[in-house]
Design a protein that fits this description.
It comes from Paenibacillus cisolokensis. By secondary structure, the chain is α/β, with parallel strands linked by helices. It contains 5 helices and 16 strands. Bound molecules: coenzyme A. Coenzyme A binds next to strand 14 and strand 15.
């Protein structure tokens, strides 16, 4: 238990350059308080003490602004920065060394039963305001951009941004725009452009012939 506490505190120093002292971290980081209260709530939940677990989770939400369902499984060294507005659902599973910013929802779509919340791999960053919705996996070492809405499986080592979330980087390489539906080629526009070019060159040719004839008359 003390090992866990020590590594939770270390995770704050590893991820937040603003962290100054252990004293400050222990007393002012609401992300830490939420994780510690969740550990108690989760232990009670596993023993079938569902209501007491929910009461602890609600108290934690009241104190920190972070709502973690007692059923959620959380790995080691999770760092929740700022935290306000974070919601983590009952069947969510979070790996080790994950960073979550304020306003993140790890939730369900409302269409699934049973396992209905995401599984987050190790070393994943979920930026502020992102929503990850559904019972799919976000692969290890992936980044979810601020305010993205992710509705599908994310392979490892990917960066996902936008609504709906799309992969823009994988294994450090930019992913091409082949499926960028806002920039698909338009054959009608291309045809019009070609016709306009033809008309312009015919007009220029006609003008040249007119000038030649005018010179001959003189
Ligand atoms: C996604 C993020 C984690 C960076 O991941 P990364 O793998 O380093 O990705 P990059 O910065 O190389 O960005 C890749 C592309 O996605 C775009 N992008 C990044 N974040 C984006 C976002 N939230 N929304 C839309 N596009 C975004 C970048 O502009 C870039 O596009 P380009 O290749 O056309 O230039 C980061 O941009 C992010 O969202 N950080 C926010 C952290 C946060 O919540 N801070 C709050 C602290 S209080």
């Amino acid at each position: 238990m003390f090992d866990n506490i020590r590594s939770d505190i270390q995770a704050v120093f590893d991820n937040d350059p603003a962290a100054r002292s252990k004293f400050e971290v222990i007393f002012t980081y609401s992300g830490l308080h939420a994780i510690w209260m969740h550990r108690i709530a989760h232990a009670l939940y596993k023993r079938g003490w569902f209501t007491v677990a929910r009461i602890i989770s609600q108290f934690s939400r009241f104190m920190t602004g972070i709502e973690i369902h007692p059923g959620a499984k959380i790995g080691r060294r999770l760092f929740i920065d700022h935290g306000m507005g974070v919601v983590i659902g009952e069947t969510c599973e979070i790996g080790d060394d994950v960073v979550i910013y304020q306003g993140v929802t790890l939730g369900g779509t409302g269409k699934e039963k049973g396992k209905r919340h995401p599984t987050i791999g190790n070393n994943v960053v979920i930026a502020s305001g992102a929503k990850v919705l559904g019972s799919f996996r976000v692969g290890d070492n992936s980044n979810i951009g601020a305010n993205s809405v992710v509705l599908r499986e994310v392979p490892p080592n990917s960066t996902v941004v936008g609504i709906p979330g799309r992969i823009v980087k994988r294994n450090g390489e930019r992913v091409g725009d082949r499926l960028d539906h806002t920039r698909l080629p338009d054959p009608v526009i291309d045809l019009c452009r070609n016709m306009q070019n033809e008309i312009d060159s015919l007009k220029a040719e006609l003008q040249r012939l007119r000038e030649e004839r005018a010179k001959e008359k003189v």
